[in-house]
User: Fold these one by one.
Assistant:
Number 1:
Amino acid sequence: MIGFYTFMEGVIAFFLVAGGMFAFIGALGMTRLKDFYMRLHGPTKTSTLGVGCVLIASASYFSLVDGGFSVQEMLITIFLFITAPVSAHLLAKSALHQKLPHDPRTKGHPEELDEEEENPEPHERAEITPPP
């Protein structure tokens, strides 16, 4: 029969391998994708999962060795999963405001990338006549 420690070593090894694969796929996405908007998915999606898996493996290992719950790794994981989407959103909004070019194969067209007219037509105002 398989022992508890052997089983936990397998679980920890699984999380380490999964974390390494996610991090590798994220790095590959950063090099292979065509424009900034597509490249933004690499660090925010797969690399976050990769680091999260490695942190879960670390928390499991130190909880097993020390005999108690490892709080530090769980706090780092929670902080990572909260801050990564926020930073990705800020980077995307900054890229839209800078009007970075996007690949034509990207679906959708944000209105922030439309060229503004040089002299937009002033809005017509209704004339208000003062009461007699």
Number 2:
Amino acid sequence: MKKVLFSIALLLGSITLSAQNIIPGVTNDSDVRGRLGGAFEWEVAKDLSLEASLEMRLKNDFSTVDRIQTGIGLEYEACKYFNIGADYQLINTHEPGAWERPRHRANLNLEGNVKVGRFEFSLRERLQTTFRTDSVNRYEKMNPELILRSRLTAEYNIRHSKWTPYLLFELNNTLNSPAVVLNYKRDPYSIDNYITRYRAGVGAKFRVTRNHRLDFYYYFDYDRSYNIDYKGNKGDLKSVVQENEMRHIFGISYKFKL
């Protein structure tokens, strides 16, 4: 299965860069990761909720802290079928020996849902923008980064049970990724669009009490990105590498609803 996905990734990468007749190099990797999170939700007004959250993420087979992420946001239930929300997240990334280069992220969320029997289906569209605090060449990395995240979720309400199992599928599509050029000092700047992440997940929510909820989940992520490098003095393209990574993510989150 992995060989098939990697072959598709290579084909997609070649198509993405075909306008410049550039075939990227490819690296393949896999990792097992973990997430542990908590959140507090408070209904500040009718149909308007405030949520504060904290999450720690692990990488390298659970051996290394990847980041600590804190967030705060608002969600408004416009009607029983539609929600709109916005949130801010501070991302503190962990590098070997230090915490550095925090990032600031803002999300705008639109979500519709419908119930069919004991199933509930929801579609969330998230416009995500992330601001880096380090200096980057805009021909190599975007700052801020714009991504559209589309997530489809199906939940099943088990009769007389505190458990609610669910499945989800998500696509991340870049909106302003830099296109590869042969010389960034000579060629005009342009943007590229491609799917950077495919995610499939399975999980189960557990209602401990009326106010306390737990969520156990597993995600399988296929991530692909481009590592673009130019010569600083002349601007010539040195290399472009398509980096593919398979991630197995196991997570537990807790929420207190006031």
Number 3:
Amino acid sequence: MDHLLETAIRLAAKVHKGQKDRFGKPYILHVMRVMMRGHDFEEQVLGALHDVLERSDLTVVDIEAKGFPPRVVKALRHISRVEGETYEMYIDRVMEDSLAIRVKLHDLADKMDLLHVAQLDPADLKRYNRQLTAYHRMKKLVEEAKANMSLQVPVKKPRSGADRA
């Protein structure tokens, strides 16, 4: 399975070669940070792939042909923007898939990290506020899902006197 993560990284590096973020830094650095935030294999692979459909001519069929798991491909469909879709419609679609939600939270957390930003213009602030709203909306959904999970804790049977001997 590790080869699929390497394939995702190589594909992302090829797709994002020469692309810059809004601060003039190589875009692949953002992609790698999102990937590194992943807590499991699927989050890491999707993190590496999360912008390849939006920033290239690749299609879902191309991604499937590279052997990525159906679960990752499905989440990639949800996390990729569609032309003509509002941001709110997009976030609604992301929220239909748990893996897409987890990786989008990593994506937004990275985009909202202002540690190395010298100055924000009004467009940056508007984008930041929109991202922050989406982040909190998805985070709330995740927290509610965790709270509603029922934990199956095995009940220990008391040991009889014969068991203790």
Number 4:
Amino acid sequence: MQKTTILTLNKDYKRLYYRGKSAVDPALVTYALKNRLPGQNRMGITVTKKIGKAVCRNRCKRVIRAAYRALEPQLPDGWDFIFVARGKTAVIKSTDLMPVMQKQIESLTQQAQIPSSKKPKASKEKEK
């Protein structure tokens, strides 16, 4: 079983926002970046006041945490994730959020693992 800790420092959030890759959906935005901690994932959740009052924001956080816990055994090791709630998060169930979160995490972690290959230079030959 993996060990997931909570991101608490502002500098960690800023690092993910600026250097991390993101995936967007009407229900959730996910930021991901590889960390240097072997076998340990870190997670943070952000919910703005635009979503609603405190009860609504806390429900959003509960839904995101529940979906993350269900997906945690399948996740790759050594990643930082930030989940940003959007308007649809307030009315969605965690079971409906799980496929969205899984799709976003898979796309973000696979992008980082694929080595960027240089394209061969195409030689332009002038036709006579």
